[in-house]
Amino acid sequence: MKMVMLVYNEALDNEVMEILDSCAVKNYTKITEVFGCGASGTHLGTDIWPGRNNLLYVAGEEEVAKKIIAAVRLLRKSLGVEGVKAFLMPLEELT
Questions:
Q1: How far apart (Å, rounded) are the C-alpha atoms in residues 95 and 5?
Q2: Across the chain, how many H-helices and E-strands are there?
Q3: Which has the higher per-residue pLDDT, 25 or 51?
Q4: Confidence bin at 79 (pLDDT 50/70/90)
Q5: End-to-end alpha-carbon separation of the chain, Å?
Q6: pLDDT tens digit string along 26-78?
Q7: CA distances (Å), origin 5, targets 37, 47, 48, 49, 66
Q8: Of 61, 59, 41, nearest to 51 (Cα)?
């Protein structure tokens, strides 16, 4: 099993949800209004540092994870620096 973690600008929520839909992902965990600093700038949800991010986790089989990563790569090509990052982690179910 794998865990895909997506960190993305909240303005891209529709695009990210479309990726999950196109990969037939029905189960995920989404955390909204996440703050941070990265290559696309600082997002703290303030007047000085506007914008927020969302964080989304998908646990699943390796093939599903590969589809999500491939779709995110395509989205990143169209967006440039702003946008979305994907991380892949091994996952072990304990219960």
A1: 21
A2: 2, 6
A3: 25
A4: confident
A5: 14
A6: 999 999 999 988 877 888 888 888 889 999 999 999 999 999 999 999 999 99
A7: 16, 28, 27, 24, 12
A8: 41
Which alpha helices (DSSP H) does the chain contain, by range? Answer: 13-22, 62-79
The sign one gets for the Cα dihedral 30, 32, 38, 41 is: positive
Tokens standing for 53? 């991010």
**Could you tell me the two tokens for 1?**
């099993």
Q: Which amino acid is at 13?
A: D
Identify the bridge partners of residue 89 per DSSP, sorted by sequence position.
3
